[in-house]
Write a structure and sequence with these properties.
This protein has 256 residues and is an alpha/beta fold. Helix content is 44%, strand content 15%. α2 (24-35) packs across α9 (228-235) and α5 (110-138) runs parallel beside α6 (159-179). The two termini are 34 Å apart. The structure holds NADP nicotinamide-adenine-dinucleotide phosphate. NADP nicotinamide-adenine-dinucleotide phosphate binds at residues 19-20, 22-26, 44-47, 69-71, 96-99, 119, 146, 148, 191, 193-194, 196-199.
Length: 256
């Protein structure tokens, strides 16, 4: 690859904040961004992010862990403050932390609905606001929100999750419309069915597992490595003319 092309994807010296960076998709994205050159603020709640931090540091980058519950709105400024204190600012925000609660709508407890919206949507809005303010001031920034196939479809027995992920897609477009002309790109990645803790219940259900696999043209569940390339692309100058796009990384699921 020539250096001109490599520069388009290079994140050297950039500061990235990734929520949910201790495991699953967020861990892979964080390490992928470090591979491309970024220093990382690793946001985690219950899982230690020590493994992610070591991986980032082994790549020669710097990492700071912020342990916090993103559902607690009052704590969210500490995440952005950590990026500013440690690295002098923020260039990339990946809103990845997410939860799912599976029960039919009639039985869906209001507390589950609320918790899912707090983690999957409300934290995304507030972190976009906080990071967006700094990015608008500096005239550049990349925000990547993690959406879902359920940003487009209804799903089964996950009404709160579906509502939150539809809203994440809408919010991504709304912010992109406001910020695109000011140098800040806001986009989303919609992962397909990926083998992580989030989908363990589905993968353990032989009927649903088979139904899902049968619909994936690529013929396999995704894994967290599948998101690294798309995340680097959306975090880098290679995607400077992309605004408000929801990029499906789904083995072709949405085409069926
Ligand atoms: P996962 O393995 O269950 O990991 C969830 C992540 O979110 C963990 O890092 C977790 O941190 C973090 N998190 C949850 N609640 C949090 C809170 N209150 N505060 C801070 N962090 C919190 O799930 P995943 O599959 O990697 O999912 C990552 C994202 O991709 C989610 O937004 C999910 O909706 C989305 N997604 C996943 C799939 C899939 O097939 N797996 C498909 C589409 C979209 P702790 O471990 O510290 O709690």
């Amino acid at each position: 690859m020539n250096s001109h092309l490599r520069n388009r994807f290079d994140l050297t010296g950039k500061t990235a904040v990734v929520t949910g960076a201790g495991r699953g998709l967020g861990q892979a994205i964080a390490i992928g961004l470090a591979e491309a050159g970024a220093n990382l603020v690793l946001v985690t709640n219950r899982t230690s992010a020590a493994e992610t931090k070591s991986s980032v540091e082994n790549l020669g980058r710097k990492a700071r862990i912020v342990q916090t519950d993103v559902a607690d709105r009052s704590k969210l400024p500490t995440i952005i403050d950590a990026a500013v204190e440690t690295f002098g600012g923020i260039d990339i925000l990946v809103n990845n932390a997410g939860i799912i609660r599976r029960t039919p709508a009639i039985e869906h407890a209001y507390s589950d609905w609320q918790e899912v919206l707090d983690v999957n949507l409300n934290s995304v809005f507030v972190l976009c606001q906080l990071a967006g303010e700094l990015m608008l001031e500096q005239g550049s920034g990349k925000i990547i929100n993690i959406a879902s196939m359920l940003s487009f479809q209804g799903g089964i027995n996950v009404p709160g999750y579906t509502a939150s992920k539809h809203a994440v897609a809408g919010l991504t477009k709304a912010l992109a419309n406001e910020w695109a002309s000011k140098g800040v790109q806001v986009n989303a990645i919609a992962p397909g069915y990926m083998a992580t803790d989030n989908t363990e219940a589905l993968r353990n259900d032989p009927v649903r597992s088979r139904q899902i696999l049968d619909r994936i043209p690529a013929g396999r569940w995704g894994d967290n490595q599948d998101l690294i390339g798309p995340a680097i692309f959306l975090a880098s100058s290679a995607s400077d003319y992309m605004n408000g796009h929801v990029l499906c990384v789904d083995g072709g699921w949405m085409n069926r």
